[in-house]
ATPase (Maricaulis virginensis), 332 residues
Amino acid sequence: MTETNEPGAELIAEADAATERLKAVKESIGRVIFGLEDEIELCLAAVLASGHTLLVGAPGLAKTRLVQTIATATGLDTKRIQFTPDLMPADILGSEILEESDDGKRHFRFLPGPVFCRLLMADEINRASPRTQAALLQAMQESHVTVAGERHDLPRPFHVLATQNPIEQEGTYPLPEAQLDRFLLRVDIPYPKREAERAVLLATTGAEQAEAIEVLNPDEILKLQSLVRRLPVGERVLDAILDLLRSARPDESDVPAVRDGVSWGPGPRAGQALMLACRARALLRGRLAPSTEDVAALAEPVLKHRMALSFAARADGHTLEGLIKTLADQAA
């Protein structure tokens, strides 16, 4: 439901205070991570929107370091899983072990896996088998896991920041569409520009290295997530989101490149992700409400992993990035 009423004084004051806190978070992360300001903002937007993030890039671009630094600045306890081909679902979720008490009675005890944390770093997620990748689905969507028929709730907030190497590299298993859709945003990590790379070399090869400082805590994160959901969204922004989604679906679009070249388009979950991410981006930038500029800026991170080009479209030189930009410009 669209909120059309003007924000009250209490909401304005809360948003202003939140913006200052989030500015301190970005400054803390910026002490360690150089040249990735937009990517940092996207990761924080996903956290504020209660979602998960998929970081994609070649090895050595500080994806893991970025996740560690975000965990430090946000005060979220973190665990790391290095995904490998021999990793099993129980290695992520946990398992039941048989124990014998002092009186000789035997019973099963659940031993939690590394998924029981507030920020899970799934490193090189596409190097694990599809069965193991699927083990994250329930946790990511429902914030609980089921082992031996028993439900075990995860702590709140719970976020997965997964890193992925380009699928062209050896030893990778493409993530299934169902799991890709669980990620609120896909954030592509580029090679650094010259000045940023110079700063990295100077900062990381000396006797001392800067460290991020803790700014937030889990309770504050939950309050910020609640605030994001209370920010008003205007009709123009809502219409832009709906126009973008419908234009990206081959059976509904009036864009020839989409009708003829897109195998499948985004579902309603993409709209939910875009709506929340726009609110979060607005808050990060000190605004009370999102604009159509937020919709255009977030179109690619929200849609890129929720669409696929046909083989013929790729052969003709079309790219998802170019197509999404065209659709976003039209919607905004």
Observations:
- The domain at 231-332 is CATH 1.10.8.80 (Helicase, Ruva Protein; domain 3).
- The mean pLDDT is 88.
